[in-house]
Amino acid sequence: MNTSVINSSLPLNHPxxxxxxxxxYQYDECKExxxxxxxxxxxxxxxxxxxxxxxxxxxxxxxxxxxxxSTSDIFIFNLAIVDxxxxxxxxxxxxxxxxxxxxxxxxxxxxxxxxxxxTPLFLTCICLDRYIAVVHPIVFxxxxxxxxxxALSMLVWGLMLAYxxxxxxxxxxxxxxxxxxxxxxxxxxxxxCNLSIIWILRKSVMGKEKMHPMKKKAFRTVVIxxxxxxxxxxxxxxxxxxxxxxxxxxxQCLISVVVFSIMDLSSSIGPLLYxxxxxxxxxxxxxxxxxxxxxxxxxxxxxT
Length: 304
Known about the structure:
Shape: globular
Order of helices and strands: HHHHHHHHHHHHH
Number of strands: 0
Strand content: under 5%
Oligomer: single chain
């Protein structure tokens, strides 16, 4: 890859303070194609309005769950913390990028993007945990202790903080190769794990008319998760190796901006997926039938 033009998110090498270039264009040539930047800031607004409260809801749900808990909940909780922090940085970034252009604040922005760059580590942990549970259940029974997952989460946090600090202090280009390897490795592992789970679940019901409800639920969840992983992380894997074939305007003003915006959108898509699997009140689960039935069963005062 050409490390001079690839950045893990919208380029964060801030322009000079005396430049009359609008900060959100980043490069003067991008005035010709502003569509990518419009999409970028739209994703930012979505993450702030939808992603932040959704991640708070996920953390609350995991912390208060008393039954039907999963061994992956530890990783899901940590992932929600990372995504909530990234979404919370949105107003600070918009204010600094569009108005202030404060040098110190750019360090915090690069740190936030460094944290976001490494979120696939927690996604990979979730996929590996489910893979072992389904494909190697005997091994899984021996490692159900959550202390192992807590220790693994601490290791991931250490790697994330080290990467983010390096990106914040040394600059974006210093982390490009690490980011590229991380995305390729994480994407490969996650796709392999999810495809293996789908294969095992499908194989377990061959010759049967119907799939067990629990396996059917797990199968649907894995398929949706795989679709989101492909949607969020396939674009950089598929497009970035061909950087040399793009023009400067095509890559810096459109392709890279849109691709990293799609990756940033995972901060909203992930928690929404998790919330869709939360247990809802019975009235809402069967709405509107159960509500109407309950209302019809209530005694009515017909006295005048």
